[in-house]
Amino acid sequence: MSGKSKLLKAVLLGDGGVGKSSLMNRFVSNKFDSQSFHTIGVEFLNKDVVVDDEQYTMQIWDTAGQERFKSLRTPFYRGADCCLLTFAVDNLQSFRNLSMWRKEFLYYADIQDGVAFPFVVIGNKIDTEGRQVSNEDARQWCAANGNVPYFETSAKDSTNVELAFLAAVRRLKEVEEQLDVRPTHGNTVDLSRAAKSKSSCC
Ligand SMILES: Nc1nc2c(ncn2[C@@H]2O[C@H](COP(=O)(O)OP(=O)(O)OP(=O)(O)O)[C@@H](O)[C@H]2O)c(=O)[nH]1
């Protein structure tokens, strides 16, 4: 295993109340709060992970999903290495809004080639009754938007939470390999630049 940890910025997006803060807290601190408050603006936490023998420090940016906080969250999209688009499986509207979230992210992160960017989609709250979004519908959306990896999670009982966050690191590695770009100074490569240069040259 190489000694130096690579810093990786991951942004969590999705409607208010789908469980973004809960997913981050489950992943970083293995805690769950059933009375979690709405996020105002953004918060971030770091977590050290090892993926395929490489060390990463994931800096996870948890954003406020409510519309009124848009101007507070969007400045933090720039420089993201990956993005986790989140909805709740018991909330159809939060699934319908995925395209809006993807578009908002690409616009404010200033990324032109969205297909070349490492997204992961999370359908959270699978422990709840009354599912409104099928696994198949979610997979279809992911297939239509660049074969995005899809995970169904529960921040409440921990199901698949670690798997989903680590998939974002794996997706980033895959995209780097496809673009054949390598980090130049210890950090991960700036994929927003890589995606742009790819789209402008080919
Ligand atoms: N049953 C269940 N409840 C969850 C789960 N994840 C989050 N919740 C609950 O859903 C509510 C909203 O969770 P948050 O993590 O605050 O949601 P958020 O997406 O960060 O919301 P904003 O900060 O407004 O964007 C809280 O009451 C959580 O306890 C889950 O996997 N299962």
UniProtKB/TrEMBL annotation:
SMART domains associated with the record: RAB, RAN, RAS, RHO
Any Gene Ontology CC annotation: lysosome
GO biological process: protein transport; retrograde transport, endosome to Golgi
Pfam family, one: Ras
Cross-referenced InterPro entries: P-loop_NTPase (IPR027417), Small_GTP-bd (IPR005225), Small_GTPase (IPR001806)
Reactions listed under catalytic activity: GTP + H2O = GDP + phosphate + H(+)
Cofactors named for this entry: Mg(2+)
Enzyme Commission number: 3.6.5.2
SUPFAM superfamilies linked: P-loop containing nucleoside triphosphate hydrolases
Membrane topology: Lipid-anchor
Keyword presence, Transferase: no
PANTHER family for the chain: RAB FAMILY, RE17845P
The protein's name in its UniProt record: small monomeric GTPase
Organism name: Littorina saxatilis
